């Protein structure tokens, strides 16, 4: 099931049907309504038709939630409810509408009912628990909110909204290190979603914390960098990625954080994530030649030679004496049939590599020539 965050920390109202509708469904509301009208006009739909009608009501309700038309969303969800009054999914989304309308008491009732109806293995239980926690937080009951956010995270440790909620509570209670770690994790997870509202909210909450507790943030960032660097050297990739991502969310000025993340993802053959972090490295430090070369290498592996050449040309503008830049250029020219240019670049790379006594690169150049 693909999860889509809805309304950031404000509301989390998600269903499998909503996910389908929100991520590429091309039907206009009128298309749904035409099908619904035709099925409703049947005198006695069979079980299969009744199930389809229920699904259509639910999808139509989700469409209007996405469109912020809560009256119409509620209308179709109530129609779905009349067909299946034991489905926690409907109460979850009706609760979301009530919360959006600032009716916290009614929202709590609906979320609690969804919780009662949900089986133990219900795949959206963390959403229900999170929303109950959010209701308690809005009522000013932070201890109960804390309890439900923790339960939501027990179901899904990477539930960014619950992490953000906990971070806010930790800050209010003066537990600053726990607050910062939760806020940082919520932020870097938010960057991997398509929900721009929540991304901006998590970013602002983290930035406000760092501004208000600058010394604490700097000390924690340094500690994370040292820990992440040690894990990187020990080749403990999973833990290193986790720690360095936290570090990068807090300290956006250290290029080595992003470079090491790029290398870790490159070692995992995750080209997209590696490229993302090498690009970030270059944004922070435009003179980081290793990042240029590694980024160009990724495009070379993908056979996107014009892009790789652009990166290498930019790198050469920063460091004209780096042999690996000209080696990579030479390989690209050879691959694209420009043998004269390729040979010229490789000869230049050889001269520069000899000055550096770079025997490993000289072997590669010899093979290419």
Write a brief structural summary.
The protein has 369 residues and is mostly helical. The protein has 20 helices and no strands.
Describe, in plain words, how this protein is organized in 3D.
The protein is an all-alpha fold and 369 residues long. The protein has 20 helices and no strands. The protein has two domains: 200 residues, Tetratricopeptide repeat domain (Serine Threonine Protein Phosphatase 5, Tetratricopeptide repeat), CATH 1.25.40; 124 residues, Alpha Horseshoe (Serine Threonine Protein Phosphatase 5, Tetratricopeptide repeat), CATH 1.25.40.
In the CATH hierarchy, what is the class of the largest domain? Mainly Alpha
Report the principal-axis shape. elongated
Number of strands: 0
The total domain count is 2
Report the biggest beta sheet as strand number plus sense, adding barrel if it closes.
none
What is the terminal-to-terminal distance? 51 Å
Individual helix count: 20
Instruction: Briefly note the CATH topology name of the largest domain.
Output: Serine Threonine Protein Phosphatase 5, Tetratricopeptide repeat
Return the string of H and E elements. Answer: HHHHHHHHHHHHHHHHHHHH
Fourth-level CATH superfamily of the largest domain: Tetratricopeptide repeat domain
Rounded average pLDDT: 87
Q: Decide which structural class fits the backbone.
A: mainly alpha
CATH architecture of the largest domain: Alpha Horseshoe
Classify the helix fraction into a percent range.
over 70%
Radius of gyration: 27 Å
Which runs of at least 5 residues are low in confidence (pLDDT < 50)?
A: 1-28
SS strand fraction = under 5%
């Amino acid at each position: 099931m693909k999860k889509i965050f809805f309304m950031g920390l404000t509301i989390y109202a998600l269903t499998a049907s909503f996910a389908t509708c929100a991520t590429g469904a091309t039907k206009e509301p009128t298309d749904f309504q035409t099908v619904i009208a035709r099925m409703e006009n049947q005198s006695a739909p069979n079980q299969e038709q009744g199930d389809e009608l229920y699904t259509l009501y639910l999808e139509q309700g989700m469409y209007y939630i996405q469109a912020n038309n809560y009256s119409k969303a509620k209308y179709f969800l109530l129609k779905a409810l009349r067909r299946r009054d034991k489905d926690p999914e409907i109460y979850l989304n009706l609760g979301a509408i009530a919360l959006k309308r600032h009716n916290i008491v009614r929202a709590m009732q609906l979320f609690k009912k969804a919780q009662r109806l949900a089986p133990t293995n219900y795949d959206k239980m963390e959403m229900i628990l999170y929303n109950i926690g959010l209701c308690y937080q809005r009522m000013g009951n932070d201890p109960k909110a804390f309890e439900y956010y923790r339960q939501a995270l027990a179901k899904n440790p990477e539930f960014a909204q619950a992490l953000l909620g906990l971070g806010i509570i930790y800050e209010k209670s003066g537990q600053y290190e726990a607050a910062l770690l939760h806020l940082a994790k919520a932020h870097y997870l938010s960057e991997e979603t398509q929900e721009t509202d929540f991304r901006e909210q998590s970013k602002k909450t983290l930035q406000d914390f760092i501004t208000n507790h600058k010394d604490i943030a700097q000390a924690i960032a340094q500690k994370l960098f040292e820990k992440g660097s040690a894990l990187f050297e020990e080749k403990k990739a999973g833990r290193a990625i986790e720690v360095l991502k936290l570090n990068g969310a807090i300290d956006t000025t250290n290029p080595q954080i992003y470079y090491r993340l790029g290398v870790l993802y490159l070692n995992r053959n995750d080209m997209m994530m590696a490229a993302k972090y090498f690009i970030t490295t270059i944004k922070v430090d435009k003179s980081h030649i290793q990042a240029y070369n590694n980024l160009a290498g990724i495009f070379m592996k993908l056979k996107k030679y014009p892009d790789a050449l652009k990166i290498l040309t930019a790198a050469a503008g920063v460091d004209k004496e780096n042999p690996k830049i000209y080696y990579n250029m030479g390989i690209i020219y050879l691959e694209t049939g420009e043998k004269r240019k390729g040979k010229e670049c490789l000869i230049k790379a050889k001269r520069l590599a000899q000055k550096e006594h770079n025997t490993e690169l000289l072997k590669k150049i010899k093979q290419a020539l």
